[in-house]
Write a structure and sequence with these properties.
The structure is a single chain. The protein has about 230 residues and is α/β, with parallel strands linked by helices. Helix content is about 45%, strand content about 10%. It is built from seven helices and six strands; from the N terminus they run H-E-E-E-E-H-E-H-E-H-H-H-H. The chain has a three-stranded parallel sheet with strand order 1-5-6. A three-stranded antiparallel sheet has the order 2-3-4, with helices on one face. Helix 5 runs antiparallel to helix 6. The chain is extended. This is Transposase. It comes from Pocillopora meandrina.
């Protein structure tokens, strides 16, 4: 664009040479100083960390060349040739991130990740005192994919109408239980099959016997309620 306007500027080669010679070093130094300040602050407060993060790749699928993870002010960049293949990048990023934090004397109370099987097994083995949670966005996304797949089958299209409501209920189960009590969350979730049948009481549950919505009125009640053991027509 600048060439078309006859505006003098440096070449692309010069730009990258200046960046690699001067700018990158300054950015890296500033980042390390900032990271160390944060670690020192956590150490002074004697706080345990809640570690949450997710990996990103430069391309989808199994052909990615670079991946990055950002968690607890700990940003990592990895190339696929550093591990077995691109599918292992996210796991290796977690391992390195945890090492940076634990080597600095910090302890991790809770970890929040997606349902990456390698990460789950590694956390269970190497961080036995850390409570591991799955990121609800990934769990909900996986469930909605299964519901959408079911809704495409003959006589099951009406199930798709409940997809968003089921996803919302999953979020609500977690958000409405701030103490993270797994048994209560489970009981709230188990009332869902009853609710979509327009049944709002679970006589078998002591922890959460009612869904709290009661009998719906007006437009809220005007929807296709599902029947147990029956196809939706």
């Amino acid at each position: 664009m600048l060439k078309l306007m006859n505006v003098a500027t440096i070449s692309e080669r010069t730009f990258y040479r200046l960046t690699s010679s001067y700018l990158n070093a300054v950015v890296i130094q500033q980042w390390k100083e900032h990271q160390q300040d944060l670690i020192s602050e956590f150490l002074e407060k004697n706080d345990e960390l809640i570690l949450a993060g997710d990996g990103r790749c430069d391309s989808p699928g199994y052909s990615a060349n670079r991946g990055s993870t950002d968690n607890s002010e700990n940003y990592l960049l990895l190339q696929s040739n550093e591990v077995r293949n691109s599918a292992w990048m996210e796991h290796e990023e977690l391992v390195r991130a945890v090492k940076v934090l634990t080597d600095s004397g910090l302890s991790i109370a809770e970890s929040i990740t997606d349902r990456h099987k390698q990460n789950t097994a590694w956390i269970k083995l190497n961080l036995p005192s850390t409570t591991h949670y799955f990121d609800i966005w990934h769990v909900s996304k996986g469930l909605c994919k299964k519901i959408d797949k079911l809704a495409k089958k003959k006589d099951y299209d009406e199930v798709g109408e409940w997809c968003q409501s089921i996803s919302n209920h999953m979020y609500w189960c977690a958000a409405s239980t701030p103490d993270g009590n797994g048994e209560v969350i489970q009981e709230k979730w188990k009332i869902l099959p009853l609710h979509i049948q327009n049944i709002h009481v679970n006589a078998e549950s002591d922890l959460y016997p009612e869904c709290g919505r009661g009998n719906l009125q007006g437009d809220a009640a005007d929807r296709l309620w599902l029947r147990p053991g029956a196809d939706t027509n």
